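Notes, p. 3: input format for complexes.
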Amino acid sequence: MRENVSELNVGRLEGRHIRAYEPDYEEKINAIFWLMHKETEESREINCHSCGYGSCLEMATAISKGESKIENCIHYMADDQLKISMIDIRNGIPNYNAYLKFTDKLISSGKITEYSAIYFNIINFKQINQKYGFRNGDAALREYCVAVAKMAKAEELIAVVSGNSYVGVVHSERLPEVLKALEEVPVFCLKDPETGKPVSISARVSVYLPDGSDTSPQMMVEKLAAAFEEISRTQNQRICYYDEKIRQKKMREEFITHAIGPAMDAGEFDVYYQPKVDINARKIVGAEALIRWRHEGDMISPAEFIPVCERTGQVQKLDFYVLNTVCRHIRKWVEEGIEVVTISVNFSKHHFIKDTVAEEINDVVETWGIPRECLEIEFTETAYLEDGDNLVSSINKLHSYGLSVSMDDFGTGYSSLSMLQNMSFDTLKLDKSFLENAVGEPRSRAVIGNIIRMAKELEMSVVSEGIETEKELEYMKLMECDIAQGYLFDQPLPHDEFEQRLKQPVYL
Ligand code: C2E
Ligand code: MG
Ligand code: MG
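Output follows (508 residues plus magnesium ion):
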């Protein structure tokens, strides 16, 4: 039973000459206690003494008499700070901390299974900034923030994470409604110049339906992020549900991330070599070094683990491991009098976040003392998209060190031609996708033929990747391509087999 506050007051507060005689006194004190975030009897018994009063009741009474202020209560203040820490200051809507706290409560109360979790990101916000300017873009973003936060009804929450990404938990039965609303959120501060209507902002959304197995809000966010990653790699998909396939993929990625370091120490990586062959002479003129990972009897493809290592930052170490191995092999072949061809090593775009990669490559070449014409570095055009300036300066430096460079997978990205304009590659590697349905197709013939002519005019040699049949080889010969790489001649070969190939360089 609750004690009568008035009685309590009279008994305990005599020393301070505070008397409780107003009829609404109890209500008033309770209201103050509520402001102090002391709603239970226990919490009113906890007295920190920081306000200078002997008890919380004394303090509350003093406030009711105007003799003290609510701000002097550390409880009130501490909670207020907490509140501030849960609001995005720029937009006044809940932030990530608020999501954590709110979801944590749902998890511990077991109610989380009644909810759906969502994570979303505005599609093409860059274009809004470009079209309407940054100031208008900012205003649109503020309006959008408030609109999406308001989509959360009672006992739901939508919070801003950072920039233009958001996270939320909504009752599962309302999920379709929320997803529909996120398809087009009108912002009234921007008008489409052609239609005069408010501009609509659309979001890409990942969804996770909690099954009660999550022990923290962060675990849920990880699942949302994994599902989001799936759609962020696509052009048109707007919504992605977290499912078993994504879970398996995520687990595989986690396995790769943790296994790579020990695998390197345990010597599980090998370098294979795939010959590049002069189409007319049918003679080996180069080779590409390709990493191979043998783990507990399985061969894990670089197409699977390289993208994971790029995300985790482990790719730098791997690429330098390959470079060192290649240099060691070249040195051995040179010392044994074997005629060596130029070996190309793949370097991930992730090296170009800093511009010292050329120096680091040169240091390795110097350490092994190999002839510089024996080494070429392959880059993909995505390196240009992300860190163009660093790529340009790295290529120039590599040339100044006497090393050659090639552009890999030409034609798969979006910047191929502008890249050729700005950088001097020694070799252009035509991606194998060019070959698909190309043979005998007049349009492909015009495209491939002209690319090869242009490359030659720019003094580049052209390698056609993925040649599997004689027919494809004949076609590339007709297109005046000089060099071919593909299963027709050889698969990527382990060191010893490749060494044999170097000793018998002609394909009969
Ligand atoms: P890439 O650099 O374009 O290498 C060519 C890929 O095509 C290789 O796949 C090769 O085995 C495959 N290939 C060669 N000829 C044929 C053919 O006739 N038909 C078909 N269908 N495929 C052919 P691989 O070895 O699985 O490597 C895949 C990708 O992984 C490479 O593509 C490269 O981007 C990356 N990679 C491989 N090794 C390294 C490395 O040491 N460092 C980095 N950063 N990436 C690497
Ligand atoms: Mg390559
Ligand atoms: Mg390639």
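The domain at 87-242 is CATH 3.30.70.270 (Alpha-Beta Plaits).
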